[in-house]
Write a structure and sequence with these properties.
The chain is about 75% helix and about 5% strand. It is mainly alpha-helical. A hairpin with a 2-residue loop joins strand 2 and strand 3. Helix 2 packs across helix 8 and helix 10 runs antiparallel to helix 11.
């Protein structure tokens, strides 16, 4: 049944894409902002800024309060579906659980949204509209885009596709397959909190520590499976070599394997310096070959798309073998 639920959610994401209104993750972001204002008001931050332990404890509490209610909300129907799976008199419980599972994975997936955003960047670059390309890539990356040339825009888009292929696609699929709707919801909410609080700025260095570490733990296995997926589908030997030699130099222990293997699989060079919040940051080089251009964006999207198909085939085959 897990294979059918997974396929249903993936098809739903492909057909509908990201909800344009009332997206649950948008609502969750507002809930997290409210908790931050309560637990970290400006006055409270000023008073606690010299006490790292106090800030970390506030961060731990914020993560628990942000995540726990929503995970518990999906535990009841999905666990009930498993408990009553063999009881023909409890069809309603089972089907409600299945619908909640499909909906949760659908909202956690961002494959079609990632594709749509990246294609807009590709279209602008293809038309030679650099200003529009900068604006579109600015929707999916956190670096400054105002002074980017076409090559830098293409590089940023490719990096975003590869990294978000893990965060919004394969990581979500992994945790759904491992722990169902509660697992994928925990993963996606932790990923969202890391994007909000995981910065190494004075305000979030300690307060965001719990969110960043939780995301690191939950992403450890998915990131390496994503890197392996990129390697199997793209230039395998090059991807594995880049993963082995370059991943450790990247600041993030999980993004490193994903980005290095993805760059090697595509045969392009990524990384290098970029502006973040007005500050120039040097980053290690990743991959081999020329810098990306407009044609590299659909190539990166194809890598992720074929990876999703590969994962679905593996899930179907595994479930068939288990039932045999």
């Amino acid at each position: 049944m897990t294979a059918l639920l997974t396929i249903a959610a993936v098809l739903l994401d492909a057909a509908l894409g990201e909800p344009r209104r009332w997206h649950p993750l948008v609502g969750f972001g507002r809930w997290a902002q409210f908790l931050e204002r309560v637990l970290m008001p400006e006055a409270g931050y000023s008073a606690a800024s010299r006490r790292p332990l106090a800030l970390r404890l506030r961060g731990v509490l914020a993560v628990l309060m942000a995540v726990a209610p929503w995970v518990l909300l999906v535990v009841v129907p999905t666990v009930g579906a498993r408990v009553f799976a063999a009881d023909s008199s409890a069809l309603t419980v089972r089907y409600v659980g299945y619908l909640v599972s499909i909906a949760t994975l659908y909202f956690a997936l961002g494959h079609q949204s990632l594709t749509d955003h990246a294609q807009r960047v590709h279209e602008a670059l293809t038309k030679g509209d650099l200003a529009q390309a900068r604006a579109k890539v600015g929707c999916i990356v956190s670096r400054d885009t105002g002074q980017m040339d076409g090559q830098a825009v293409a590089s940023a888009a490719v990096e975003s596709v590869l990294e978000n292929g893990n965060d919004a696609v394969f990581g979500a699929l992994f945790w759904f397959l491992i722990a169902g709707a509660p697992g994928v919801l925990l993963y996606r909410l932790a990923n969202t909190l890391d994007a909000m609080w995981g910065y190494r700025t004075p305000r979030y260095l300690y307060f965001g520590w719990a969110a960043a570490r939780l995301d690191d733990v939950l992403n450890f296995v998915p990131a390496r499976l994503t890197a392996l997926t990129y390697a199997l589908i793209g230039h395998t030997r090059c991807a594995l070599r880049c993963w082995r030699l370059q991943a450790g130099a990247w600041e993030s222990p999980n993004a490193g394997p994903v980005m290095a293997a993805g760059a090697g699989a595509l045969g392009v060079g990524l990384g290098g310096g970029a502006y973040y919040h007005g500050q120039w940051e040097e980053r290690p080089a990743l991959g081999v070959g020329p810098r990306p251009d407009a044609t590299s964006i659909p190539a990166a999207l194809r890598l992720v798309r074929l990876g999703v198909i590969f994962w679905l085939l593996v899930v179907i085959a595994t479930e068939a073998v288990a039932r045999a």
